[in-house]
Amino acid sequence: MTVLLRIDASARLNGSITREMADRFIDGWRKTDPNAKTLSRDVGREPPSIVSEASIRAGFTPPDQRTAEMNDALAESMTLIDELRQAHVLVIAAPLYNYGLPASLKAWIDQIVRPGETFSFDLKRGDFPIRSTLSGKSLVVLSSRGEFGFEPGGIRDGWNHLNPNLRTVATRLLGIAPDDIYEIASEYQEFGDERHDRSREIALRDASELGSRLAAARRSPCSNEKVPA
What we know:
Blueprint: E1 3-8, H1 17-32, E2 37-42, H2 53-59, H3 68-86, E3 89-95, H4 103-112, E4 119-121, E5 130-132, E6 138-144, H5 163-173, E7 181-186, H6 194-218
Parallel strand pairs: 1-2, 1-3, 3-6, 6-7
Antiparallel strand pairs: 4-5
Helix pairs in contact: 1-6, 2-3
C-alpha cells in the first residue's frame, strides 16, 4: 500500500491555492489507487517547534546516553520523522513567501533532518560527509506565487528560493533522486486578473493529472519509465 505524506504550509486556511492543489493531487491519485493511505501534517495551522539548544544537544547525543529530558526534547522530532519514514510520496503544498519558504515549513524541515535518523555524517567521505539514510521516496512540490516569471530566463529568474531549497534538501538529506521530484506552480496571484485565473486553472488540472500518472506508474513496478512533471 502506497503512503502519501501531505504537508500543508499555507497560513491561509480558506482560499488557499496550494491546499486546493494538494486536494486535487490526492484526489487524482485515489482515482487510480483508491487504497493509498494519506498522512496529513498541517504545519500552516500548527507550526512545529523551532529547534532549540536543548533539542540540538539531545540530537547529537547517542540514544543510549540520552536523559529523560533529552528524549522529551526530541519527542516532536521523532513523531515527524516517523511520518516521513512511512511515506513513499512526500507532497509539499507551500506558497512562496517573500521569495522563500514559509517559516513553518522550514521549522518542519529542521525537525525531520537529524543525524543518525535521516542522514549520517562521516568525515571518511571527504568533503561530502553527509549521506541520507532514506531512499526510494518521491517528492511533489505544489506552490503558489504572487508574481510570475520565475522560470529560467524569466523576469524574476533566480528570485524563487523555495523550490531550489526543497530540491537540495530532498536530494542531499532525504535520499530523493532528482528524477523523482515533480513541481507545479500557480502564479499571478497578486494580480488577480485573467492570467491568474488561467494559471490557477492549469495548476489544478496538472496537479490532478500528476496524481493519477504517478499512481499509475507506481502500480506498474515493471515499468522503468519516469513520469514527466
